[in-house]
Design goal:
Largest sheet: 7 strands, mixed
Strand order of the largest sheet: 3-2-1-4-9-8-7
Order of helices and strands: HEEEEHEHEEHEEHHH
Distance between the termini: 44 Å
Number of helices: 7
Helix content: 25-40%
Structural class: alpha+beta
Shape: globular
Strand content: 15-25%
Number of strands: 9
Oligomer: single chain
Radius of gyration: 18 Å
């Protein structure tokens, strides 16, 4: 780690806690089958109010130890980070490979969020697919936000033929979102056997948003 960036005991303690949260998230998602066999799980987290970006990278694969490598750098040295897009209101980005979302990625289709456990926590109704891989994640998302202000900002971007880039507030909350959305993808694929997942019946989604305090915010978007 870059020790000169960790100038106070508080910052050192913050990074230690971030590492602990990351390990807990990784181990939980690994144990419940959210992560794919490659165990790809890489975190970038900006310390609020600081020009500090914490990177936490797990070895994955067949590594005998899955202890993560932690790095610290200046956030201002990462202008291409998705965390620079203020409209997303995110301080954490996680690149992850999960089995069922990767299936949508391979199909080159956006993922519609139709499962209530995920939908109640999100205003966005779908996760786009990053088809033009020569363009950066932040470029693709900014274009979508500019072109479709009527749509809530997406919580992630499928990496075509690969995994997913998620973002959110805090390491644990962002990891929990991965759990919910991957679970949604799994059940929606299962639903294909009995005719396919359907959109919500009238009023059902509004009821879920009311339970999580998102109903008023949802009125800012028409789609």
């Amino acid at each position: 780690m870059s020790e000169e960036l960790l100038s106070t005991p508080e910052l050192i303690a913050y990074v230690d806690q971030a590492r602990s949260d990351a390990v807990h998230a990784f181990e939980t998602l690994r144990a419940n089958g959210t992560l794919s066999a490659s165990l790809t799980f890489h975190i970038s987290h900006r310390i609020p109010g600081q020009d500090v970006l914490v990177g936490i990278r797990f070895p994955g694969g067949l590594a005998r130890s899955q202890a993560p490598k932690v790095s610290v750098s200046k956030f201002s040295d990462s202008p291409g980070s998705i965390l620079n897009e203020e409209r997303l209101d995110a301080d954490t980005a996680i690149h992850v490979h999960t089995s069922y979302l990767s299936a949508w990625s391979l199909a080159h289709k956006p993922f519609p969020i139709l499962y209530v456990a995920a939908a109640r926590h999100l205003l966005a109704r779908e996760i786009p697919n990053h088809l033009e891989r020569e363009r950066s994640v932040i470029e693709v998302i900014r274009e979508r936000l500019d072109k479709h202000p009527e749509l809530a900002p997406p919580p992630a971007l499928l990496e075509s033929n690969g995994g997913v880039n998620f973002w959110g507030k805090g390491i644990l909350k962002t990891a929990e979102l991965i759990l919910f959305v991957e679970e949604s993808a799994r059940y929606q694929i299962y639903a294909e056997v009995v005719g396919g997942a359907k959109v919500y019946t009238p009023g059902a989604l509004e009821l879920q948003w009311k339970r999580t305090g998102l109903l008023e915010k949802s009125k800012a978007y028409s789609g």
